[in-house]
Automatic annotation (TrEMBL):
<dbReference type="InterPro" id="IPR023198">
    <property type="entry name" value="PGP-like_dom2"/>
</dbReference>
<keyword id="KW-0119">Carbohydrate metabolism</keyword>
<dbReference type="InterPro" id="IPR010976">
    <property type="entry name" value="B-phosphoglucomutase_hydrolase"/>
</dbReference>
<keyword id="KW-0460">Magnesium</keyword>
<dbReference type="InterPro" id="IPR010972">
    <property type="entry name" value="Beta-PGM"/>
</dbReference>
<feature type="binding site">
    <location>
        <position position="52"/>
    </location>
    <ligand>
        <name>substrate</name>
    </ligand>
</feature>
<feature type="site" description="Important for catalytic activity and assists the phosphoryl transfer reaction to Asp8 by balancing charge and orienting the reacting groups">
    <location>
        <position position="147"/>
    </location>
</feature>
<dbReference type="GO" id="GO:0005975">
    <property type="term" value="P:carbohydrate metabolic process"/>
</dbReference>
<feature type="binding site">
    <location>
        <position position="9"/>
    </location>
    <ligand>
        <name>Mg(2+)</name>
    </ligand>
</feature>
<feature type="binding site">
    <location>
        <position position="78"/>
    </location>
    <ligand>
        <name>substrate</name>
    </ligand>
</feature>
<feature type="binding site">
    <location>
        <position position="171"/>
    </location>
    <ligand>
        <name>Mg(2+)</name>
    </ligand>
</feature>
<dbReference type="InterPro" id="IPR036412">
    <property type="entry name" value="HAD-like_sf"/>
</dbReference>
<feature type="binding site">
    <location>
        <begin position="116"/>
        <end position="120"/>
    </location>
    <ligand>
        <name>substrate</name>
    </ligand>
</feature>
<dbReference type="InterPro" id="IPR006439">
    <property type="entry name" value="HAD-SF_hydro_IA"/>
</dbReference>
<dbReference type="InterPro" id="IPR023214">
    <property type="entry name" value="HAD_sf"/>
</dbReference>
<feature type="binding site">
    <location>
        <begin position="9"/>
        <end position="11"/>
    </location>
    <ligand>
        <name>substrate</name>
    </ligand>
</feature>
<feature type="binding site">
    <location>
        <position position="11"/>
    </location>
    <ligand>
        <name>Mg(2+)</name>
    </ligand>
</feature>
Length: 220
């Protein structure tokens, strides 16, 4: 079977914005008396802004104390801090091997998709200078369910006009691997501690065309 597309997560696969999300959430959480650490932040990877806030409030034992307008204000304060911090991103912020892989996929005429639930994804791709290397980016604004729901990956397949079973999905979060597997796509996980990935790599620099191609052949 021919590989029809490769679909990428953004945060933690294309560039490492997880710590910027963390710094922004930590500041907002601290202002309302909740202390979060990196370990807790790992549970927010792949989770939408609103749902991340709900989990932080739950973690702080004060979910019931905030009305929806107050939550909206907190989420938008977090986003303001996060967006300010994005100004430090440049082409140097692309994780190792990713630019080379995108170029190779283009050369081989294999379509590429983006499946990130971040509403800031288009801005980030532009800042990294690689927006034009994606055939289709799923619109996070039209998604109603965060990962591990497969919705964003299915939206990417839809936009590319490919079937999930003929694609490889690449993720760094457990929720993302679960989303990829749930739609029948072949999953590659980056980083330690991920379960049920079809292939697990320790770093993005291992994401070469020979590696993807061997994984695809083996999966047939
Ligand atoms: C990605 C990140 C999450 C983040 C989500 C929404 O999935 O892994 O940590 O909460 O995007 O990002 P946004 O930029 O829309 O707040
Ligand atoms: Mg990620």
């Amino acid at each position: 079977m021919k590989l029809e597309a490769v679909i990428f997560d953004l945060d933690g696969v294309i560039t490492d914005t997880a710590h910027l999300h963390f710094q922004a959430w930590r500041q907002v959480a601290c202002e309302i008396g909740i202390e979060i650490d990196e370990t807790f932040n790992n549970t927010l990877k792949g989770i939408s802004r609103g749902e991340s806030l709900r989990r932080i409030l739950h973690f702080g034992g004060c979910e019931a104390a905030f009305t929806q307008p107050q939550r909206d204000a907190l989420a938008s304060r977090k986003n303001g801090i996060y967006v300010d911090s994005l100004s430090q991103l440049t082409a140097q912020s692309i994780l190792p091997g990713i630019h080379e892989l995108l170029l190779e996929l283009r050369e081989r005429q294999i379509p590429t998709g983006l499946a990130s639930v971040s509403l800031n994804a288009p801005t980030i791709l532009n800042m990294l200078g690689i927006a034009e290397l994606f055939t289709f980016c799923a619109d996070a604004g039209r998604i109603t369910h965060s990962k591990p729901d497969p919705e964003i990956f299915l939206a990417a397949c839809d936009g590319l006009g490919v079937s999930a079973q003929r694609c490889i999905g690449i993720e760094d979060a457990q929720a993302g691997i679960d989303a990829i597997n749930a739609c029948g796509m072949h999953s590659i996980g980056i980083g330690a501690g991920l379960q049920h990935a079809g292939l697990r790599l320790t770093s993005t620099d291992q994401l070469t065309w020979p590696c993807l191609s061997a994984f695809w052949q083996h999966a047939q």
